[in-house]
Specification:
69% of the residues lie in helices and 0% in strands. It is mostly helical. 14% of the residues are buried.
Length: 221
Amino acid sequence: SITVFLLGIIIRITKLLLTQPHNTNLKIYPEKRPKWLLVLNDVFLLPNVRRNNKILWVFLLIFHISLLLLFIGHIELIKEFSLFQIIEHDVFLGKGFIGLILIISLLFFLFRRFISPYRELSVLEDYLLLILLFLTFIFGSQMDWARSWYDYSELTVEDYRIYLTSLLSFKPEIPDNIKISGHSFMLVLHVFFANLLLIFLPFSKLMHAFLTIPVNKLKRG
């Protein structure tokens, strides 16, 4: 899955570079102010969405902020860095509420596509992508909720850390606590759907994570 993910991104970006002249400048929003500040504002604060649909803007904002915190949490599963401990916290951040926010946001994005005019604009990929994200998050969050909310301590952070680190080094090692745990199937499903997501990402709309800054730079001129 990592190989497909990396090769897919390289191929997609290479094809774009080969088909798009380097000096292309759309100049949709020409400004005299520093363009990079405006580009970053467009990318991270989504002013156009805020003007047109404030409810969607709120969900997009909290979704992306929560996604960043979730990413930090997975980095901390490899190793805890002092940089992330400015505000002291347990792994994961948010004590289970970050996952809950992400899942509520995804349900909003999904059910929104059953309502006109978004239903007419949606394609099968949109639904598949949201469902795949939902399944990845729900099984991952379930393990965090069990530890944070229901005192299910059979699977510890250290067990996850050993398992994830072994995957990243391509030498899978499954701690005994995971093998005997009643929640091990949640971990298996979470990893399975996460791998599907990695494979699907380069060929989906999630590529905007890599392209949104350059595209907005073109718009600004």
